[in-house]
Amino acid sequence: MRKLIVGIAVVLLLSQSVFAMTANEVMEKYQAAFLYPGKDFKARVLMKLISEGGQERVREMTMIRKNFGPPGGEQKYFIYFFRPADVRGMTFMVYKHPGRDADRWLFVPALNMVRRIAARDKYSSFVGSDFTYEDVSGRDLAEDTHKMVKEEKYKAKDCYVIKSTPRAGDMQYSYRLLWIDKADFLPLKEEYYDQRGDLYKIFTADEVKDVKGVPTVMKRTMKNLKSHHMTQVTYLDADYNVGISDSLFSERYLKQPPRRWIK
Amino acid sequence: MKRIVIAAAVILLLVPPAPAAEVSLHGFLQGNYSADISNNPNPDGGDFKLAEERLQLKLDASEGPVHLFIKAEGWYDHIDQVWDSDLREGYIDYTAASWDARAGRQIITWGVGDLIFINDVFPKDYDAFFSGRPLGYLKKGVDGAKIGIYPDFASFEVVIIPFFTRNVYPSPGRFHVFDPMPGVTDRGKVEPAVTLGDTEVAIRAYRNIAGFDASVYFYRGFFRQPSMMPDDPVMPGKLTQFYPKLSVYGASLQRSALDGVLSLEAGYYDSRQDRKGTNPMIPNSQTRFLVGYQRQLWEDFTVGVQYYGEYMHDHPAYERSLPAGFPGRPRYYDLTSLRLTQLLKQQTLKLSFFGFYSPAVGEYFLNPEVRYSFTDHVWAAVGANVFGGGTPAGDFGQFSRDDNTYVQVRYEF
To answer: What CA–CA distance (Å, rounded) separates A129 from A126?
Structure first.
């Protein structure tokens, strides 16, 4: 009898530790799985901007990311644009710093000119899409309070549902709800609520695939319910740990992007 | 020289590259028109500053460490009713691990100013800028070689230019260009020779220092704005345009600060042919500097402000030697600038305003513009260039009768 009680207690304790992660723990795993996987990452990205009337505009780019520290730490991005025609050959470099706005540089081929860009992560649309810079490269976890709302199935997958509320009131949204897959900690859906509490923006992960053993969101959509505009992002190919050197993230290569990395 | 370069470009375009090479061909078709909006027609009687259709082809070919790039244009000018062509860029790159080289016609842009150039000593086309061409046409290529060297502690660019390229200024037929001696009609031109002694050298060293993008610059060459040398200072019968010797020593800093981007730049202009400042036909030595700040205030709205100052050394000597009736430049000239940019409709609609105003002399230049991308291939821009204030000899004041409105339409492929 006593053994049985101890056994039940152990099982209960285990189940507590396995199933009852705190919201902060879930968000840390989400950040590592969604925004920081691999030492580095490279993808050919197709972005379709679709208006309410169905008009499509296409942005195509190679996106390279490298981590310079643990999840939540420094990251650098290098982006080369293929389409549309008027930005072909432009490159864009971001040094992402936890706790403050990123440093950004843009190279304009027609002027052979590198410029720093003054843009706030929180308010800036990424190349005119429904994704902000912050949606692309992530928010600091400490900028929000995270609360476990419930656990439920979404698209037949067990999910944690987390409510993240910005500590500062300077955001376009008042809070967001995230459905995070318990198995791989990728977000399957994110709902953004405006200051009046109305749902206005929805992110969905439409296809998840293993790339070198890393579950990766290969297709995603951000839909704006107010403007009825949406953006579909597809990774045409993706790869991890390809050996991106630190020197890529420099003015030299911004002006002359190495072909072996961008193609 | 120009013909040889264009012929070489045509041959390169026609010769099929090696099968292993990666080749791409892009370009655009563009219509560009600019009409006077003040009640004054051009000095030549016309009402248009610009009316042309233009084709640009860009060829990229790469194999291993070698990269070839050609950007050539042909156009029809409705005002002069002529076909013309130009090689805007044409160069070969060689890239090694810690250095690279680029030889041929190439555009180089240095410095951190927004339309203010201190250490960017490379050729500009102000005719294009003031008559409503797209911004890319403000810069002209240099014919030379650039070597990049990238050791760990800093990066270096060394530019060697054997073939001098002058700035392009608004043409007297289409703009009311100030002329201090309109009575002297016999005019000549002299450009720096293609000799070792007249070869221009420009060096930039840069690295990150405490979060700043820091650069130092050196240039030894010539002013690209011509000076006028009369054959006789008292009773001139002939004026000869020439390009005085110049050296520039400068530095720039740029970094994120105050939720925006802060820019600082300065340069000393050593006028080597008139170090005492006693020749009124040659610019005096100057110290130039700028402070700039840009910041995003709300979604897709950015504001940029700059202050630029230009201090003339030896101003008393300049004033003493200035011939009677000649407009003098002040000891201190300055400019403020304001740039506002709002993007709308998923960044396909761009409303922008750029303005210069000089507190020292009261002249201004204003450039509002609306640009819309109809599709991923077609965009159009409509804008205006407005000049005024100051004196009839001022940088902007002289064009007070040249306000114009322009249209740019481009199909890009």
So the answer is: 6
CB count in 10 Å sphere of residue B39: 7
> Among A83, A112, A116, whose Cβ lies nearest the Cβ of B109?
A112
Cβ-based neighbours of A232, under 8 Å, separated by 6 or more? A47, A48, A50, A206, A219, A220, A221
Please check the confidence at residue A12 and state whether its pLDDT lies above 60.
no
Query: From the list A116, A123, A125, which residue is nearest B261 (CB)?
Result: A116
Q: A172-208, pLDDT tens digit by residue?
A: 889 999 999 999 999 999 999 999 999 999 999 999 9
Tokens of B358: 């000089």
B-chain CB neighbours of A250 within 8 Å are 150, 155
Across the interface, of A112, A128, A250, the residue whose CB is closest to B347 is A128
User: Rounded distance, CA B306 to CA B15, Å?
Assistant: 48
**Is pLDDT above 90 for B146?**
yes
Query: Mapping DSSP to helix (H, G, I), strand (E, B) and coil, where does residue B257 land?
Result: strand
Fill in the DSSP letter of residue B362.
-
Residue % of chain A over a pLDDT of 90 = 79
Amino acid identity for residue B161 in this structure: I
CB contact A119 to B (< 8 Å): yes
* Tokens describing residue B103: 């030889």
Say what the ipTM of the complex is: 0.91
Q: What is the mean pLDDT of residues A31-55?
A: 96
Q: What is the pLDDT of residues B20-50, one digit of tens each?
A: 678 999 999 999 999 999 888 999 989 999 9
Chain A nearest-CA distance from B307, in A, is 18
Going from the C-alpha of B265 to that of each of A136, B116, B311, the distances in angstroms are 33, 10, 14
B160 backbone φψ class: left, alpha, beta (φ>0; ψ -120 to 50):
beta
- The pLDDT assigned to A34 comes to 96
CB contact under 8 A, A111 and B28: no
**Helices and strands of chain A, counted as H and E runs:** 5, 13
Contact B315, B340 (CB under 8 A): no
Q: For residue B298, what is the nearest residue in chain A, using CA coordinates?
A: A123
Structure letter (DSSP) for residue A247: G
Inspect the interface and report whether the beta carbons of A51 and B346 lie closer than 8 Å.
Answer: yes
Q: Is the peptide bond before A84 cis (omega within 30 degrees of 0)?
A: yes
User: Lowest-confidence range among B61-75, B182-196, B368-382?
Assistant: B182-196
d(CA A256, CA A93): 13
Nearest CA in chain B to A120: B296
Which residues have CB under 8 Å from B152's CB, separation 6+?
none
Nearest to residue B81, comparing CAs of B46, B57, B55? B46
Across the interface, whether the CB atoms of B379 and A86 are under 8 A apart is answered yes
Question: Is-contact A237 A43, C-beta < 8 A?
Answer: yes
- Is A85–B261 a contact, with Cβ atoms under 8 angstroms apart? no
Of the ranges A61-75, A119-133, B9-23, B373-387, which one carries the lowest mean pLDDT score? Answer: B9-23
Contacts of residue B93 in chain A, CB cutoff 8 Å?
256
